[in-house]
UniProtKB/TrEMBL annotation:
The lineage of its organism: Bacteria, Pseudomonadati, Pseudomonadota, Alphaproteobacteria, Acetobacterales. Residues 23-273 form the EAL domain. It comes from the Bacteria. This is Bifunctional diguanylate cyclase/phosphodiesterase.
Length: 275
């Protein structure tokens, strides 16, 4: 590599160059996946804690990258956001989630993650409207999960979009609650239908008294505000029992069910109760 600045040009260090090339390759593969139907959705059941029945499912992106294998969403959503591809990928996810959810027994709902970048791109409400229309899914059975990243951009426009979605009849959940800086403030600004308590709090339930105190405070506050509480990442029976005792309505986690294919979910839903 040459010295930077002097001659008005600069070579990247080799490792930097390699990373750039990897990112480009990833972008190319993401575009191809979009064009050729390379994405799938997995669905993780959402459980009503009181009777342990499935009341909905969260749609989670899955990508089998050619020559590489399964790439977790955390590893490609960042690039998809930087390149703007998240708009199209997210639109696909909304359409596909609605299409599948329309085949589930009523009133089971589906939750779809919406990235902050996707949220800010124009056309989200139109996309949701079209997906509901094409699938025939009632709007009340679709929930959009947004994170604090959406609300950090605290503009009139953000609130207007949320309100438009709400007017369509779609539900709005605040994802990863408690991991940001001012989650509480956002609850005051917008009437969410649900808060999803981040799995980092659930993980330490029963071990760390502070985690218990935080979860119970969030559940109590949700109740007072008339917002449904969902606890994520429940892996142990004891965690479920503590959450139930604290009045948490809904859970997700490996203890009850892992994310599964749409087919596996339909089989599960068709199985007689108790099996
Ligand atoms: P998230 O929205 O917080 O989703 C929950 C993640 O926790 C999922 O990981 C899920 O498989 C995992 N999980 C569920 N139960 C348990 C448990 O009991 N224990 C543990 N350790 N993990 C559990 P996944 O599918 O790898 O997704 C990771 C993240 O990628 C999601 O976090 C979400 O932020 C993002 N993501 C996934 N699908 C989409 C999508 O369609 N659009 C957007 N924008 N983001 C998505
Ligand atoms: Ca989520
Ligand atoms: Ca989450
Ligand atoms: Ca997350």
């Amino acid at each position: 590599a040459k010295e930077a600045g002097r001659g008005g040009y600069c070579f990247f260090a080799p490792e930097m160059n390699q990373r750039l090339q990897e990112r480009r390759a990833l972008e190319v593969d993401l575009r191809n996946a979009l064009a050729s139907g390379g994405f799938r959705l997995a669905f993780q059941p959402q459980i009503n804690l009181e009777d342990e029945r499935i009341i909905g499912a969260e749609a989670l992106l899955r990508w089998e990258r050619p020559g590489v294998g399964n790439v977790p969403p955390d590893q490609f959503i960042g690039i998809a956001e930087e390149t703007g591809l998240i708009g199209q990928i997210g639109a696909w996810a909304i359409h596909e989630a609605c299409r599948q959810a329309a085949t589930w027994p009523e009133p089971m709902g589906v939750a779809v993650n919406v990235s902050p970048v996707q949220f800010r791109q124009p056309g989200l409400c139109e996309c949701v409207t079209a997906a509901l229309e094409h699938s025939g899914l009632p709007a009340s059975r679709l929930e959009l999960e947004i994170t604090e990243g959406v609300l950090l951009n605290d503009t009139e426009e953000t609130l207007a979009t949320l309100e438009r979605l709400r007017r369509l009849g779609v539900k709005i959940a605040m994802d990863d609650f408690g991991t940001g800086y001012s989650s509480l403030g956002y609850l005051q600004k917008f009437p969410f239908d649900k808060v999803k308590i981040d799995r980092s709090f659930v993980r330490n339930l029963g071990q760390d008294p502070n985690a218990g105190a935080i979860v119970s405070a969030v559940v109590g506050m949700s109740r007072a505000l008339g917002v449904r509480a969902n606890a994520e990442g429940v892996e142990l029976r004891e965690q479920a029992a503590l959450l139930l005792a604290q009045g948490c309505e809904e859970v997700q986690g490996y203890f009850f069910a892992r994310p599964m294919s749409g087919e596996a979910l339909r089989e599960l839903l068709a199985a007689p109760v108790g099996q």
